[in-house]
Amino acid sequence: MKLFRDADGHAALTLQAGLSVLIALGLWNATAEWSPILALWSVGRPAWLALAPRALVVAMFLCALALCAGVRVRAFALTLAALAAALYALAPAVYHNNYYLLWLMTLALAMAPHPDHSLAWITAADKPAPRPWPPALAVFVRAQVALVYWVSVAVKLSHPMWGGTGHAIQWITTTRAPDAHFGLVNPLLQPLLSQPVLAALSEWAIVGLELCLPLLLFNPRTRRLGVALGVAMHAVMQEWLFPQVFSFVMLLGYFAFIDGGDRAFTVHYDPRNRLDRALAAHFPRVDWMGRTRWLPRDAPGPLALDDRGTERRDLSALRLLATLSPVTVLAYAALALLAPGADTVLTLPRAAVENLIVAAVSLAFVPGLLDRPVARLRATLDD
Amino acid sequence: MLSPMAPPSPRALAAMALSLLVAQLCLATPRFDRHRSPPFSGRFSWSMFAGPLTGRCTHELHLVDVGDHPLPWPTLRHDDPMRAVIDARTPPEIVRLSWRVAPYADRDADLALALDDLLSRWSRTLHAPAGSSLTSELRCASPHQPPFSRARRWPVSP
Hints:
By secondary structure, chain A is mainly alpha-helical. Chain A has helices at residues 10-42, 47-50, 52-68, 73-90, 97-111, 119-123, 136-158, 167-180, 185-193, 196-218, 223-241, 245-253, 274-286, 314-324, 326-337, 350-363, 371-379, and strands spanning 265-269, 292-296, 304-307, 310-313, 344-345, 348-349.
């Protein structure tokens, strides 16, 4: 039972708080999807019964808010899981595999003993170190992430349309994606992925990636590569096919592979610079995993992050900082899930707007592209 | 049992994690069908391309009088959910409807069952001349499935 020895509690609190927010966002998003389903379910039923599923959804959402506040997390998670099961029993048409994954995570929150997070802990700049605790939740989430990838590989490899024929990818790009949304990525990919060779190659790439990702994540030496590949895969999938809450549950799950609390990244900031001061004051609030230590510089200089011996400056430091906080995943989830009923934003398709925002943010992750402008911008913020 | 501070036993934790994982594998495995047409896998399974049956179904829905002559549909509000059911005739329209009544259906018959349930409830709310009835005919020729058809008739309240 070495797996369950007491460990640093940062991962447990991060998963608990992060999953709570994703459950709330996922439920909020589900309301739009469930609305026409429940309208059909209500046809011809007595008014009191027709209201029952909606009452269950409201009760589930209240439980999710209690989870976000860190109030009796296990009790509310268990209640929410029971209410979701009741909703499924009453109206099975609300089922979706994404919500099933969210439900399993809720069940894990209810079953894994852990100290409750709190709003005060989540938002504090000077977070007290969580007490060591058996990492049951983290172990379950790691296993669940691996299971999702490997079952997905098994399904793909055994299906005649996958297995490197290219037919599945061609079906997705020519039929599934155009039917599902008006995003900008599929029209760009379609000319390429309609080619049988490229479609077959991308099928093998997806299967290979899903097969390797858990192995890369479990091994501390390859974890960073695994996270980079996994984030790239989920971001492309999200912007291409919009699997919604599924993407974010998987990305948050990556934090289960890290023990946290190691303060492995030292950030040297310039207290005479307003951007640096703001980052030093506020980043620790979102550093739920306890990965960073912030030290003021004696002399003027760039924002510098010591990445295990390699110094990363300014935008390069900001890029790495963004990957250290689960709040990045939650912010991305909020962008995708907060306006569930909106088909258009300012006359543009909502999916296209999300594509454009993510593309704009992604530019900051292209090495060398915006490094100089950001360094110059930072310099203008010196006192 | 729910106390967050109860000292957990490592053996119990391992059993909990394992049971959750094994249980979901047990749920997924019996539904696995390598001959299933896109979107490939069904309920409780982990593939991004799981979803409703991509049936090749057509549906005919009519309100008929005692002599089997078609009657006009009663006026429905613009947001009435039954509009989608009346309008769903072709396979793509049926697929869109199946998201709402029988997602992750494993067989064409599951879609028929969901439609039966919905239409029997709706027929009780319709008002039409005495002897009228609601008729529904579903025909499917989905890949890797035997041809399926079913016809049903429900009396409509006068």
